[in-house]
Amino acid sequence: MSLNLVTLTPAQSAGIPVALIGSVFLAVGAQLQQRGVAKVGDQPAEGKRSTLGIGQLLALARRPSWLLGTVCLGLAILFQLFSLFLAPLTVVQPLGALALVITAILNARVTEVKLDGRAVRALALCVVGVGLFVGVAALTTTTLPILEPQLIAVVVILAVVLLVLGVCFGLLRKRLTRIFYVVAAGVLFGFVATLAKVLIGRIQTIFRAHFHLVAGDWLTLVCLVGLLSAAILGTYFVQTAYSSGSPDVVVAGLTVIDPIVGVTIGVAVLGEAAHAPVWAGFVFAIAGVLAIVGVIQVSRSGARLHPDDVEPRKGSPKPPNEHPLASA
Fold first, then answer.
1. How confident is the model at residue 146 (pLDDT cuts 50, 70, 90)?
2. Are 87 and 12 within 8 A, CB to CB?
3. Residue 244, class by beta-carbon neighbours within 10 Å (0-12 exposed, 13-18 middle, 19+ buried)?
4. Which of 44, 174, 213, 251 is the most buried (most CB within 10 A)?
5. Which of the four pLDDT bands, split at 50, 70 and 90, describes residue 34?
6. Pair 43, 308: CB distance under 8 Å
């Protein structure tokens, strides 16, 4: 029986470490941005924050921790884009889940709270699930030329998503809980990654055609507008979610929902797994479940590690909030 395996080129394989570096910047950036957001207003009860006001958004630009976190997230985006340029979406997108692992370790270091056995097992489960998924994806999926019907499908789906989220935000924003912002941001950033991959492919096609544009290239501009719209709205949702507590739940939601959306579109619409064998689908499902369960457990274990959520240690000379990031 043929395994129908494919081999990534050396350049495509390089997309994996590039994506891992991006995950490090994502975790550090999330930690720093949450510190900045926490400083611009009082912390409300968990899950009850509605939205950030204009004054708070302007105040963020004066917070060193938030600005440094923004730089880190900008670098994370650049590394993600480069990894998408090098490798298939289904290979590099799931690696973002490792950002939660890094976030949990960072929180443990900052708060000097040791990760217990349950947290370590959850981290291991997350790493195994992501590693298995990426390993099989690297052997069974490939980047294919993106056709106009596929492009239209992605744009139409995104338009519907933006409409639904916009209506919910416009009519119900005073009653929306944190989970809405986390889920919405994860969905939007999944589309951002997908559209980035689409745009990279379209730009490569235009270059190969020596800038000979055809009628269908107007879709490239539509994709760019959709990407920017999803990125701006998703970023606002993330900042609002940060305002109601630790970054763990935010990062957990993004690292589960973002890859699910991105990989689903990559497989169902872009056809990256069109030639994958049947057994690969079962492995993807098992690996995905392992990673999701691990991420959920990590977020539950890691929430208590946030500086604002732990009690001062007996005999400690300073409260847990007074770590290097607290005054930034």
1. confident
2. yes
3. buried
4. 251
5. confident
6. yes
Our measurement of the distance from residue 76's CA atom to the centroid of its chain's CA atoms, rounded to an integer in Å, reads 10
pLDDT at 27 exceeding the cut of 60: yes
Task: Report the sign of the C-alpha dihedral through residues 246, 247, 252, 254, in that order.
Answer: positive
Using a pLDDT cut of 70, give the percent of the chain over it: 77
- Tokens for 87, please give them: 């490798």
Print the SS3 string covering 108-161: HHHHCCCCCHHHHHHHHHHHHHHHHHHHHHHHHCCCCCCCHHHHHHHHHHHHHH
What is the C-alpha to C-alpha distance for residues 216 and 218, in angstroms, rounded to an integer? 5
Q: What local confidence, expressed as pLDDT, does residue 61 receive?
A: 72
* Per-position b or e across 201-235, b if 16+ CB within 10 A of its CB: bbeeeeeeeeeeeeeeeebbebbeebbebbbebbb
Contact yes or no for 57/186 (Cβ under 8 A): no
Token readout for 223 is: 């994709």
- Closest Cα to residue 34, out of 278, 288, 328, 231? 328
Give pLDDT tens digits for 79-130.
988 988 888 888 887 887 778 778 778 777 777 777 778 878 887 887 888 7
